[in-house]
Request: fold
Amino acid sequence: MHDVGILRDLVVLVGVAIPVVALAHRFGIPSVTGFLLAGVATGPHGLGLIASPDSVAEVSELGVVLLLFTIGLELSLSRLLALGRELFQGGGLQVLGTLAAVAAIAPGLDLEMRQGIFYGALVALSSTAIILKAYMDRGEIDAPHGRVAMALLLFQDLCVVPFMLLVPILSGSSVADVHGSVRNLVTGVLVVAALVVGGRLVVPRVLDRLVLFKDRELFTICILFLGLGAAFLTASFGLSLALGAFLAGLTISESEYGLQALSDVLPFRDTFTGVFFTSIGMLLDVGYVVDNAPLVAATAAGVAVLKTVVTTAVVLTLGHSLVTSLTAGVSLAQVGEFSFVLAGVGAPFGLFASGHYQLFLAASGLTMLATPALIAAARPLAETIASSLGRTGVPMPPPEESARVEALSDHAVIVGYGLSGRYLQRVLAASGIAHVVLEQNGKIVREARAAGVPILFGDGTRREVLERVGLSRARVVVFVISSPIDERRGVATAHDLNPGVRNVVRTRYVRSIDDLMRLGASEVVVEEYEATIELFARVLEGYDVPTYTIHRELEAIRAEHYQMLRREDRPPLALDALKHLGIHRALDMVEVEEGSTAVGESPTSLELRRQTGAVVIAVVRDGKAIYQRDPDFAFRPGDIVVMVGDRESLERTAKIFRRVS
Reply:
């Protein structure tokens, strides 16, 4: 008879998790919190459906291995270096600052210093999964606070492995134990070096050979073997399973197969990490939470306040505004999923004081549960605090800059100095058009000002900032800030200050157009749609459709203000009426423009066929097609000329019917 005990426990665990996580999703609660609640329900302190959490411990540990493996796959040295100062300076200060703050108050809590350091490591980590999903749902991933938060979270993820290596050292109570821990650390460093160097030399060559088989299943199996094999190797030397998996993922990510490997592993990761977080929830004693509710709430609030203060101070050192710094600080106030991983490693070593493990689980779960609400309230709360302190983000330019800005009139205001903002500024400068740029990143402002760019530090979505740069006297304001919430607020504020200003905004998605136009935007440029238009043009060019025809069709789409993608009843394009004839590449239509050389002339007097090679087969006037033209026929403005010929001849002919500039 087979022992199906663990299978039964997994069936119960997953069966309970499905409705609980579904309800969590329905009410906007993070799925991680849903898994924790499912664990509470099934565990020995809940309904008792699973009496012993140890029965699923080994399966849940596989979730940790796959979680670290995918984190490694998502990272790369090039990505780390690109983040630069915000990653290494910001992330380093945030982690060390939080760790030092917790360690400093440890004696007042009757904790040993080693426990204070361990607790600091637990508190320093925030939830990448919850914050990333919340920012993506809110469209704030590319906002200033979103970018800096992602850099800090990435550094925290990198610190998980060193923290795991630190646990045995912190647990050593004798000189022999410390020496043994140091010896293990040196061994670990050597094993890590061997894995990294060997992986970079061997793994790409192995994968190069493997893809020649063109077998998806074989590739996936090999990727899992590399991850699990590296985890087994590090565990064999007394190191963490997760360490080997992380290094394997980092090695594979440096190859050209990293993206495919990540997509193959994600389904396994999501499944087993769900089991892991559910098993953590099974350890939570509901009775303890009820009996110690004030202590749990106070601990959760203390952790949130401490992390907010430290993170805000760190982001300020990077040159960001107080509003951006506070928004990022409040968003990162929770304890992260990797803290549970680290807690599971540290608990057997006795690094938790009596009763503190349950307190950690309860308080951490509470901070994670509160994260969506905290992120939603972060920006308004940050603006309120900044206003009360007189730090509203109003630009304070040098005296000479202040005088220049006050003298501006009929100028352009650019809000945001990313890639689009920089190119736009260069074009305006080259054209001799007066302009001023607003940017919230202090470092970018200093560098741009040193390069001679007329740029000021300030939040261009705020009324007082736009007033300072003379928006009431401006002709155009352009928002290129990659944050839907800020875009809407900026457009509305600019329209309220100057209803006559040309209010141009670049946004990411087509669905934002109606909302932005309602708020006062004059023109909306959509990244998603402009890419579609460019694709449309490239395809038509491949079929030798004349350039003028392509240009006309693109302008027709824009003139309909993107209605082609926004509505089901899409307006017909001119090409639609011709495609059934199979001759759209040899046929074109052009409107006779007022002021063109063709006005008052006929095809004969213009000698079109001899001069261009194209033949006029019809003229559409007042909705009627004219095929047989009398001797007195002459082209009029508004006539639609239908002609045939090769691509070059059609383009030459189209120029004759255009307005002479």
